[in-house]
Design brief:
about 475 residues, five-stranded mixed sheet, four-stranded mixed sheet, disordered N terminus, binds zinc ion
Length: about 475
């Protein structure tokens, strides 16, 4: 009974009218509320995350939109992480509009992200997977309901944050290989200098093409009496995955939420404790140690092992936190226009020829799959507008980018941000494909191949970082 107990101790405060925004005399009461909305689909729905589509045949564990709302008496922020591979901007915008209509919480103060589990319903069309309209409608409503319920649960709270390290579960998945061992890319080019997910322990491996970010960032809110209300963590790992291709699962993000709740002794509370693991910058990071031959494992063993490692570190960080009764909150959002890497007339002619020869049903080869993507990108306009958002929670900064962001970019944001610590939530407020650095674009490889999963201009990353730093400067 967190809310009732907590309210009783500050009932005098609760009766006071809120100070008008910008009055300077903030009413110094800090509140937090959390809720989870179940977003599990029906069986039979399309699952994306591979080049080929799959149909859901089993639900291994339920999917959720995990919602945290913070309120400093003047400003209210919401952060939501959905168990989904990626969610297009229109769905997130529609959910934000619903929340704003119902509660007055400004749409630009809401951060909605996808965790990037690869065992969830298709919500954005990628490769051979297309979304189900009914599911998208359901998802929109459930996200809005979750934020609304988190607002309903707002109760006095104290807050703390900190960072730890879990280096054993993150590996850069792009590798430089021995000359002549990288196959032609699906555009017929033989100029790729890196290979994504090479054969582990292959004698052709040279070195990883980039770093990793082992940081586990933790934001914790408790009732004034010290009962856990919610925990938001951030880790830069793409996903873990299971060998059961037709299962629906929240991957290690869901398993983390379950494990940290257990470690904090926060089971069966009312309102329920809520943990949320957001994805940092993991566009080029996965959970495969390429130097070693993989050991055979049961389908969900690795998911549990990773979740346990990250939750154990988050719990260790929690034990050292000192909580504050009040911190200021603020958010800044803007839109950035970026060019689209559109195909040339020659690219289109080649794609046309490949598709004319393809024998269905379905596309079989990478050349065929990328030829179709070329025809789809041909229809894109020459530029696209991205939502970029920065949040400030006390001295903690959060950057939100609507892409699968390369880890180098997250490390640069952590270093350059005036707020310490700062972390990034990727796949937030929309979906605009992979975001490699210009240097990584030169190396080629899967994440740079033009498709609906990678189409922003080569210089997108520095422009995005510059824009985010301008937002942080305003927040500071
Ligand atoms: Zn991905």
């Amino acid at each position: 009974m967190i809310a009732l107990a907590a309210c009783a101790s500050v009932s005098g405060f609760a009766a006071e009218p809120a100070a008008p925004a910008g009055s300077g005399e903030a009413r110094r009461q800090f509140r937090a509320g959390a809720a989870t909305s179940n977003i599990t689909p029906r069986l039979g729905i399309s699952i994306n995350g591979y080049f080929n589509d799959r149909a859901a045949r089993h639900i291994h564990d339920e999917l959720h939109a995990r919602c945290l709302v913070l309120d400093d008496g003047r400003t209210r922020l919401a952060s939501v992480a959905c168990d989904s591979c990626m969610i297009p901007r229109e769905i997130m915008d529609a959910a934000k509009r619903l929340v704003q209509e119902r509660s007055g919480l400004a749409a630009d103060h809401i951060l909605i992200s996808a965790t990037h589990t690869h065992t969830a319903p298709t919500s954005a069309g990628v490769f051979q997977s297309e979304p189900d309209k009914e599911y998208l409608q359901f998802l929109t409503g459930r996200i809005a309901d979750g934020v609304t319920r988190a607002i309903n649960n707002l109760a006095p709270a104290k807050i703390a944050w900190g960072v730890g390290q879990e280096p054993s579960q993150v590996f850069n998945r792009r590798w430089k290989m021995k000359p002549g061992t990288i196959p032609a890319n699906p555009f017929g080019g033989t100029n790729d200098l890196v290979k994504m997910n090479p054969q582990p322990a292959s004698e052709n491996l040279v070195e990883p093409a980039g770093p990793t970010d082992p940081q586990v960032a933790v934001l914790s809110v408790q009732s004034p009496e010290g009962l856990p209300i919610a925990l938001l963590a951030n880790y830069s790992l793409h996903y873990v995955g299971t060998s059961r291709d037709n299962d629906v699962s929240a991957d290690y993000y869901g398993a983390f939420a379950d494990r940290i709740q257990q470690l904090l002794g926060a089971d069966r509370q009312d309102p329920s404790f809520m943990a949320l693991l957001s994805n940092g910058t993991s566009g080029d990071i996965n959970n495969i140690n390429f130097r070693k031959k993989p050991e055979p494992r049961e389908p969900y063993d690795q998911i549990r092992a990773v979740a346990d490692a990250v939750a154990t570190e988050a719990h260790r960080v929690c034990k050292g936190l000192s909580y504050q009764d009040w911190v200021p909150l603020s958010a800044q959002q803007t839109e950035l226009n970026l060019s689209v890497r559109r195909p040339s007339p020659e690219d289109i002619a080649r794609a046309d020829a490949i598709l004319a020869k393809a024998k269905g049903p379905g596309l079989k080869t990478l050349d065929e799959i990328y030829a179709r993507e070329t025809m789809l990108i041909k229809e894109y306009s020459s530029d696209v507008s991205l939502v970029l958002q920065a949040m400030r929670i006390g001295d903690l900064g959060i950057a939100a980018i609507p892409c699968e962001v390369f880890v180098e970019i997250g490390l640069a944001i952590k270093k350059q941000s005036p707020l310490k610590p700062t972390f990034t939530i990727e796949l937030a407020n929309g979906y605009n494909g992979y975001l490699p650095t210009p240097e990584q674009h030169k190396l080629g490889g899967y994440e740079t191949w033009r498709a609906r999963s990678s189409y922003l201009e080569v210089e997108a990353a520095p422009k995005i970082v510059e824009t985010l730093m301008a937002l942080f400067a305003k927040l500071k």
